[in-house]
Design a protein that fits this description.
This protein is α+β, with helices and mostly antiparallel strands. The protein contains four helices and five strands, in the order βααβββαβα. A five-stranded mixed beta sheet has the order 1-2-3-4-5, with helices on both faces.
């Protein structure tokens, strides 16, 4: 069996597999953020947002043997200093394929995409207690930039 990762731009052919991964991602995030919404309505909204503005947002899929094992999505954003930044809003690899370098490949791919589009900065958020993701992001060059706090009201 060939475990070579193929990275492609999202097409509707993979919508069912992608929805499954988004739901798995949201369930995983519940361990870090208990109020995380996991409804199908939320999944459909995220999918629509990630694919609607084709000039400013992108969704890449990671495939092994034509099976979707992960994804990353990003969009154009201006930070508080008005610097155009490409922001990665999702990165997810399904459990059996973690710790094999596939997440790093997807991050490097979306980084190259943003650079080709002329962006000078790449941003990504991480829940504060998701130490595995934080370690990965720092390992490939991300630096602490700011702190965002949240409070339930």
């Amino acid at each position: 069996m060939n475990n070579k990762l193929e990275i492609i731009k999202y097409t509707p052919k993979y919508s069912k597999a992608l929805k499954t991964l988004i739901k798995e991602f949201q369930i995983q995030e519940k361990q870090y953020y208990k109020e995380r919404e996991t409804s199908d309505q939320k999944i459909n909204y995220l999918l629509k947002e990630a694919t609607s503005k084709t000039d400013q947002s992108i969704l890449f899929l990671g495939l092994i043997n034509n099976n979707v094992i992960g994804y990353t999505a990003g969009f154009r954003e201006e930070n508080e200093n008005k610097l155009p930044c490409y922001y990665i809003n999702d990165l997810f690899i399904t459990k059996p394929y973690r710790k094999k370098g596939y997440g790093t490949h997807l991050l490097k791919h979306i980084s190259s995409y943003a650079k080709e589009k002329g962006y000078k900065y790449l941003g990504i958020g991480v829940l504060h207690n998701n130490t595995k993701a934080l370690e990965l992001y720092k390992k490939i060059g991300f630096k602490n930039y700011g702190i965002e706090l949240m409070k339930k009201i």
